[in-house]
Amino acid sequence: MSRYKVIATPDEGYWCLKVPSIERATQARSIAEITPMAKDLIEIMTQDPRIEIDVDYDLPAEVAEAVELKRRAAELEQLAQGKQKAAAMALRDKGLTLRDIGKLLDISHQRAHQLIKAQ
Fold it and tell me: Which of 22, 55, 110, 112 could link 102 by a cystine bridge, Cβ 3.0 to 4.6 Å?
């Protein structure tokens, strides 16, 4: 099984696909077409039907930044949920009502109840 690197760059409504190891390029209309188009090109040029590809996307810096921020936001959301549960339980141990806990944590009293009961 031969492995090839494919560099996919968006360009005017299509994807430019470069395969450096065979010094050739092709195009795809969508992300879904990248793999089959690249494999077709490589197979035609090398006569090797057993191909695996690794796609590297050459994208603007804003895309990488947006993806990283989304990943970090999900990470922080998971951390916040764990802390929120601990905070709800600590407030309940102090004798606060579910409505007060909800108000302090900026959640509904029903959500406060869920957090406390999910031990």
Answer: 112
